[in-house]
Amino acid sequence: MSDKPAELKLWGGRFTGATDPLMNLYNASLPYDQKMYAADLEGTKVYTQGLQKLGLITEHELSEIHRGLEQIGKEWASGEFVEKDGDEDIHTANERRLGEIIGRGISGKVHTGRSRNDQVATDMRIFVRDELTKILNFLKELILTIIKRADTEMDVLMPGYTHLQRAQPIRWSHWLSMYATYFTEDYKRLEQIIERLNVSPLGAGALAGHPYGIDREFLAENLGFNGVIGNSLAAVSDRDFVVETMFWSSLFMNHVSRFSEDLIIYSTAEFGFIKLADAYSTGSSLMPQKKNPDSLELLRGKSGRVFGSLAGFLMSIKSIPSTYNKDMQEDKEPLFDCLTTVEHSVLISTGVISTLSINKEAMEGALTMDMLATDLADYLVRKGVPFRETHHISGECVKTAEDEKLSGIDQLTLEQFKKIDSRFEDDVKDTFSFEVSVERRTATGGTARSAVKKQLESLKSQITK
Ligand code: ARG
C-alpha cells in the first residue's frame, strides 16, 4: 500500500499529510475482511433501496447501483477483483470499485446517512449468521451419524470409566449417546445464538441515528433480520454476538476435545477398542509400525486456539469507551479463524466417527467381574438388606476373592458367600452377567437397551423438529 495523498482516500477531506506506509498496512483489514464481500454488497443493495424510498436517489440511480454491485460480486467470486491503494477495508474497496463502474456521481450517494460503523456491524451479523447456520447443519449431520452408529452397534458392551478406572459395564451405544447428548445441547444453544444475533444495526449511522428517517424495519426485513437493534449507540458498538460465537465455539470444542481424548485412549494397543480409518490417521516417518490418530489429536489441539480467540477478544474490548473504536476491528481475525476451525472440526469429527471400526472382543474382553461388585450389593438390597450394609458385604467378597487368588468374585463358592453373609443364596450366580447388569439400568438415561433407544429417539427429535 503506498502513501497515497490523503485527498484520494474516501475519508480524505480534512487530511493534508500522507500516512506512514506502515500505518496503511497496520490499519488495513481488507486482507481478511474481504471474506464478507457478499454481505457488504447485500447490505448496500438494501440500504440504497431505503434511500430511494426516501427520494434521496432516483429509480435510475438505484438500478445503476444494483448493476454495479452485481458486477463487483462477480469480480470477487471469480478472483478478478483488483485491489487498489487506499482500499482500507471491504467497505471502501467495494465503494471505490462501484464508482469506477457506474461513475462517482452516483456511487457517491450510497453512503448518505450511513457510516462504516453501522455498515461493518451489519456485514458481520449477516456473515456470522450465515456461517453459523452452515455449521448448525453440519452439526446436525454429526449428531445423526453418531445416533445411527449407536443404533447399529447396540449389542456391544464395554467398561464405563470414572477416574479412568473400570467402573461399571455400559453399552458402547450409551457412550456414543453421551456425546450425541452434548452435541445436541450445543445444537440448541447455537440455534438460540443465531436467533439472538440476527437483529439489524443498519440505519444507526455513525452512532447518533439516521438524519433522514430511514425505515430501519424495512432494511432489517429485506436483509433477513428478525428486527432492529433498538438503540443506535448499541447498534454500532455491540460485539456481544462475536463473544457469544466464540464462547459457543469454545464450549463445543471442549466437547470435541474430550470426545477425541476418549477415542485416542480407546485406540491405543493397551485398549484396542477402536481403530481409526486410514483416511483419518497418518504414519510415522521413522517407525514403520505406527498409525497415529492425528485427526483426533488435531481436534483436541485446535480447541486451544478457539479458547484463545475468546480470551483474546474479551481482552481487546474490555475497556473500550463507547461507541465505535478501532480496537473493534480486532474482532475479525480471531472470529474468522474460530469459524473455520469449528466448521472443519465438525466435518472431521463426522468423518472419524463414521469410518472408525470397533473391536467388540476387546471391548467386552476388558470387562471384569469386579465391575459387578455394585450389582452384588444390589442383589442383597433386593433381599431387604440396607445398601450401606450390602456395600460393605460386597467389599468383603471382593477382598476374599483377592485373598484366595481367584480370578473374580464369581468364582467364590456358595459356602464362601454364605460364610460372609448367610443371606446369600444359590441365585447369587445370576448376578455375574454383564448383560444382566446393563439391562437392569432401564431408568431414563441408563445403559439398558430400551433406555439407550429412548435417548437416541429423543435426541433425534430435538434436532429434526
Ligand atoms: N474496517 C473497520 C472495522 O472493521 C470498519 C469500520 C471503520 N469505522 C471507523 N470509524 N473507522 O471495524
Mean pLDDT score: 95
Following the backbone from N to C, one meets helices and strands in this order, namely HHHHHHHEEHHHHEEEHHEHHHHHH
Model regions low in confidence, pLDDT < 50 over at least 5 residues: none
Overall geometric form: elongated
Structural class: mainly alpha
Q: Compounds present?
A: arginine
Give the total of domains.
Answer: 3
> Helicity, in percent?
55-70%
Mind describing the biggest β-sheet? 2 strands, antiparallel
- Give the N-terminus to C-terminus distance in angstroms: 51 Å
User: What's the CATH class label of the largest domain?
Assistant: Mainly Alpha
Q: What is the CA-based Rg, rounded?
A: 31 Å
Name the CATH superfamily assignment of the largest domain: Fumarase/aspartase (Central domain)
Describe this structure in words.
- Belongs to the lyase 1 family. Argininosuccinate lyase subfamily.
- Pathway: Amino-acid biosynthesis; L-arginine biosynthesis; L-arginine from L-ornithine and carbamoyl phosphate: step 3/3.
- The chain is mostly helical and 465 residues long.
- It has 3 domains: 6-112, Fumarase/aspartase (N-terminal domain) (Fumarase C, Chain B, domain 1, Orthogonal Bundle), CATH 1.10.275.10; 117-365, Up-down Bundle (Fumarase C, Chain A, domain 2); 369-464, Ribonucleotide Reductase Protein R1, domain 1, CATH 1.10.40.30.
- Helix content is 60%, strand content 5%.
- The chain has 19 helices and 6 strands.
- It has helices at residues 21-27, 30-33, 37-53, 59-78, 90-102, 104-107, 116-152, 172-197, 216-222, 232-237, 240-266, 294-317, 332-355, 360-365, 373-381, 387-403, 414-420, 434-440, 449-463; strands at 157-162, 165-171, 274-275, 282-283, 291-292, 357-358.
- The strands form 3 sheets. A two-stranded antiparallel sheet has the order 1-2. The protein has a two-stranded antiparallel sheet with strand order 3-6.
- β4 and β5 (291-292) form a beta hairpin.
- α7 (116-152) packs antiparallel against α8 (172-197), α7 packs antiparallel against α19 (449-463) and α11 (240-266) packs parallel to α13.
- It is elongated.
- The chain starts with 20 loop residues before the first helix and ends with a helix.
- Arginine binds next to α7.
